[in-house]
Amino acid sequence: MLKGEYPLERFRDLRTPFYYYDTALLQRTLETVRAALQDRPSWEVHYAVKANRNPVLLRQIAAAGLGADCVSGGEIQAALDAGFAPEGIVYAGVGKADWEIRLGLSKGICRFNVESEAELEVIADMAAEMGLVAPVSFRVNPDIGAHTLSGITTGLAENKFGIYHGSVEPVIRRALQMPSVRFLGLHFHIGSQILDMQDFVMLCNRINGLTEQLERGGIPVEDINVGGGLGIEYGHPNHLPMADFESYFGTFKRHLQGHRPVRFELGRSLIASCGTLISRVLYVKEGLSRRFAILDAGMNDLVRPAMYHAAHRIENLSSDGPEQAYDVVGPICESSDVFGKDVVLNECRRGDFVALRSAGAYGESMASTYNGRPLPGSVFSENPAEE
């Protein structure tokens, strides 16, 4: 949204900080994704619920016909409550608890993405006890280093996720001997906030080689889950409000061999751009050599800058005054509670509304009550009755 498009009069009676969601942009994004896959009817997108599980947004995404990618029992239940069909839910996670496995089995979800042989044994035993057959894919660690932040890469051999690609065949053969398990496919995920399509080309090459090897050995692979990982342009939310879905899906169309169904687990690229953290300036503080804009939002409301050193575009929505450089910080009693240093903003005054852009992914979902602070609220552009 452009700076002047935020409904500041509506904001004035609301307690800050809160998340403001442009649900019209989210709808356009969902329609763009659907259009990009019109020529691949067997390819499915599962929304990564961990990115944002706000129930209003989940209902909108479910209504658009997407599936859900869940990493906990709580996310499975949230997806079901929002209207996602069980047959559209895939469940990943390196540490699935017994109750979470039983929940997925009892609800009839479409797939367990299994991360180890030990997990396979547990799922098989529980399915047998319940008189069910568990549909499984194996998460393969492809040992591919994505061009992204070290804290959100997942496909290296040293990461905790998945089964090393050179060791997966014996585990699959073990699964084929289990009457309470049905092996269906392979699952991959190499990281998040990836903008270099060559990373996905490398993934396709790894997938092609592995599926060919397995099928030569008499193991058919029914479908492939390539994970997610597509990034957005955090620095340019107005000029580039959507991720580059054309290049992303086009890469897999060109480089992934075979005609089997493909699943995608997109989160950030669907939801990040539609969300903005709205805060007010509490104080402007002059230091010895730096000027601070102290906000009423803190790292408990948006932890990405403190945790990952991630940068969000910051704008003063209330001012057209001369530009000045500020260290934009929050009120939390931690030195890491910093949203940005030397951020150029229109002149800040107490009470100004400040927007931290592209915060729809991993903002509200990672918020906490640290320092005894309340969780941020949520406000929606199209349905204010849901506030």
What does this structure look like?
By secondary structure, the chain is of the alpha/beta class. The chain folds into two domains: 23-272, TIM Barrel (Alpha-Beta Barrel), CATH 3.20.20; 273-386, Beta Barrel (Lyase, Ornithine Decarboxylase, Chain A, domain 1). The chain is 28% helix and 23% strand. It is built from eleven helices and 17 strands. Strands 1, 11, 12, 13, 14, 15, 16 and 17 form an eight-stranded mixed β-sheet that branches. Strands 2-3-4-5-6-8-9-10 form an eight-stranded parallel β-barrel. Helix 3 (55-63) packs across helix 4 and helix 5 (98-107) crosses helix 6. The two termini are 20 Å apart. Residues 146-157 have low confidence and may be disordered.
List the keywords:
387 residues, single chain, eight-stranded parallel barrel, alpha/beta, 28% helix, TIM Barrel, 17 strands, Lyase, Ornithine Decarboxylase, Chain A, domain 1, 2 domains
Number of strands: 17
Fourth-level CATH superfamily of the largest domain: Alanine racemase
Characterize the biggest β-sheet. Answer: 8 strands, mixed
User: What is the C-alpha radius of gyration, as a whole number of Å?
Assistant: 22 Å
What is the helix fraction of residues, given as a range? 25-40%
Query: Which CATH class of the largest domain?
Result: Alpha Beta
Beta-strand content bin: 15-25%
The global form is elongated
Distance between the termini: 20 Å
Summed up, the helix count is: 11
What is the CATH T-level topology of the largest domain? Answer: TIM Barrel
Q: What CATH architecture of the largest domain would you give?
A: Alpha-Beta Barrel
Query: What is the H/E string?
Result: HEHEHEHEHEHEEHEHEHEHEEHEEEEE
Could you say how many structural domains there are in total?
Answer: 2
Low-confidence parts, pLDDT < 50 over ≥5 residues? 146-157
Q: Which structural class best describes the helix and strand composition? A: alpha/beta
